[in-house]
Amino acid sequence: MEIIIDAGATKTAFILLCDRGQEQRGFTGAGINPNYTEQSDILRVFAQFVKQYPESAHTDLVRYYGAGCASPANQQRMTELIAAFFPLAEVCVFSDLMAVCHALGGGKPCVAGILGTGAASCLYDGKEIVKIAPSLGWMLGDEGSGTNLGKRLLTAYLNGSLPTALADQLQTEHGLTRQGVIDRIYRQPAPNAFMASFAPFVCQHLDHAEIYELALQAFEDFFASQKVHYPEAETLDWQLSGSVAYHFQEVVREAAARQSCRIGEIVDAPLPRLVGKTIPL
User: Is 131 within the bounds of a domain?
Assistant: First the structure.
């Protein structure tokens, strides 16, 4: 048996492969990022998976791709936590960016990127990640992410620059007030998740010129801020994954073209493409 896991800020998706991969069983739990997620919450996600699939405790191999796992310290931490649940398994922990590289890179050099709740990118040489753009998080970076899109929408709403009809619809659908938004962002937990929850509204109203421009500028900022770290990659494809990349892909492609970045594939999630892939461990 083999378990492949794709852990992001919003959700953690598992695939249990049985009978040499002929049978697949899925599970989805809460998001995991060892930089922010309490250890008790991480353990709870794995406990829920094992409870649903007790046979998984006898698996031979666990491949874990996770947000916040680019650092050796977090890789070691997650390896130890996972090994406690699967004592017979070889445990391999990779960054979430490596999931994109393994799923879409095809063993060829590329720039791999994630546009989901957060945003990130790296340079892949076909075997290893050789460079990662600095991750500044949602307060200082994450251009083009779901959180960033929501932040831009709420800023326009609070500044009074949204068309009246759109502002009214936003208020009606989400019960917004100016003071309520300020309170939610500055005085309550998880403001990034709150802002990211408005990305679907942006996606649903791309037919409005103001909203389309808002999204286009967010994605242009993503490519502009990331590509400066990979001057040697001007001729490489950008392979992208994430719910935002997938659902906004028309705008993403236009933004990439404006920044002279060539898009390869865009997928919602890399996990299905990792099944059956032979990965050097």
Answer: no
DSSP state, residue 118 = S
Helix axes 178-186, 146-159, angle to 10 degrees: 140
Inter-residue long-range contacts of 71-77, CB under 8 Å, 24+ positions, other chains counted: 74/34, 74/35, 77/34
Buried b (16+ CB within 10 A) or exposed e, 183-196: ebeeeeeebbbbbb
Weakly modelled stretches of the chain, pLDDT under 50: none
| Secondary structure element (H or E) that encloses residue 219, with its range | helix 209-227
Q: What is the pLDDT of residues 207-225, one digit of tens each?
A: 999 999 999 999 999 999 9
- H-helix or E-strand spanning residue 171: helix 164-174
Q: What is the CATH number of the domain that holds 48?
A: 3.30.420.40
Closest Cα to residue 78, out of 101, 94, 99? 94
Q: Which domain holds residue 21?
A: 2-100
* Total-model pTM: 0.86
Structural domains counted in the chain: 1
Residue with tokens 């960054």: 95
Residue 152 is which amino acid?
R
Three-state secondary-structure class, residue 278: coil
What are residue 6's DSSP bridge partners? 13, 65
For the chain, the farthest-separated pair of C-alpha atoms sits apart, in whole angstroms, at 60
* CA 196 – CA 192 distance, rounded (Å): 6
